[in-house]
Amino acid sequence: MPAQRPRGVSIQDVARAAGVSRQTISNAINAPHKLRPDTLERVTALIEEMGYRPDQSARSLRSGTRRIIAYTTPETDPDNPNALMSGFLEAMVAAAGEAGYRILLVRPRPGQSRARALEDVIAARTADAILLSDVLEDDPCVDYLHETGFPFAVFGRTGPGRPQAWVDVDSAQAMIDLVGLLSSHGHRRVAYLGTSAALPWLRHREAGFRIGMRRFGLAGHEAFVDGLDEVVAVARDLLNRSPRPTALVLDDDWLAPGAYAAAQAEGLTVGADLAVTGFNDMPYTRLLQPPLTTVRLPLRRIADALVSRLLQSVEEGEPPEAGLLLAGDPVLRPSMTTVE
């Protein structure tokens, strides 16, 4: 007779050892948001210690789910990848994995719209839910997914009257806080250098700057650029205003090298004669001299919130009724100065 294959650790074994129900073990693997943090920590540790691994194929057959989240990745230049989106993807993979899900990357074929690529995913039943990012307020993909009833969540805000299954950074408040930080360091004249692209997150930052300037009673000017080749010239123009600003607020870190070059051309030292702040905390901001004060996006908190909302839609059939704003994390570095 062939030797019997040894029986693996079952869910009942783990439940018995933990002194909890089978459902609690199932929730720890499939819906950790349903458990108290102390219970989740204890049960998860025991699952790892006992080496319990659920039968994925059997679970998929029972539940009708594949435990896959499809993510339509934005296009990027492989020779100049977007470090921010790479960090977001890493956070999503980690958050989804802890919930027992995997991330499937989806990119439209040449000439194919993103909505059509989503239609292919739904028709092929290759995923249980879809994650979108870089959406505009009237994004047709949001409307399409809403019409199909397919579970989805969005990194970035959708417009009024559209599904609110989104998570975003409160860019306006983060910019208000930056202006407040400059005010607390004695700055009274602050200039703003922004990007002219009509992207909602950039407009939120611009609006926050203006609110902050009014709230803290500061004076300043604004200017906008279309591309990298304009940054130095436009920044120099701002620094030549009279009276000269003592701080320069950027709506994105990618403007910082040009702003530093403009300051140098005007005989100013960043971190001594001029404060400069950015947004996004891109990796190179720590290598600038001096390192850049900026706002870090809480990517892991964003990913956790998105996965939680996706699981709510997939496993409970209840899509979120309201969007969720998360605070940005200010990062204070030597490009900040104090005005005596």
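The above is record 1. Record 2 follows with the same two-line structure.
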Amino acid sequence: MTDTFEWPVRVYYEDTDVGGVVFYANYLKFMERARTEWLRSRGFEQDVLIREQGVLFAVASAEIRYRAPARFNDLLHVTARVTDKGRSRMSFEQTVYRPADDRHLTDGLIRVACLDAETFRPRPIPEEMQRILFQ
């Protein structure tokens, strides 16, 4: 549907657990950063969307598969690609991999809803955004 977007993420000490590997929930944070940067790369800042368009995006569901661990100081790349869209939603296929050894670490299918910033009820993605995001 759209090209695959890629964003680098460095693993900090705070991202790891007592075993020295990335804590499982932090992969969701890495994926969130990649989706935010994907929006930014297309000219949309989330605070501006709330203020000027009255919309925000929230995760409706997440399916994650862990394949291999990342460790402190690893440089990771996180991808985001829209695989499905509707009037008020979109789905992202995301991966986290380590380029140093080309190791695929995590897969995710993240479903995001467009919500009214005041009521938190679903609302259509603004038409201008759709044109830019899904061209």
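Helices lie at 26-41, 46-53, 127-133.
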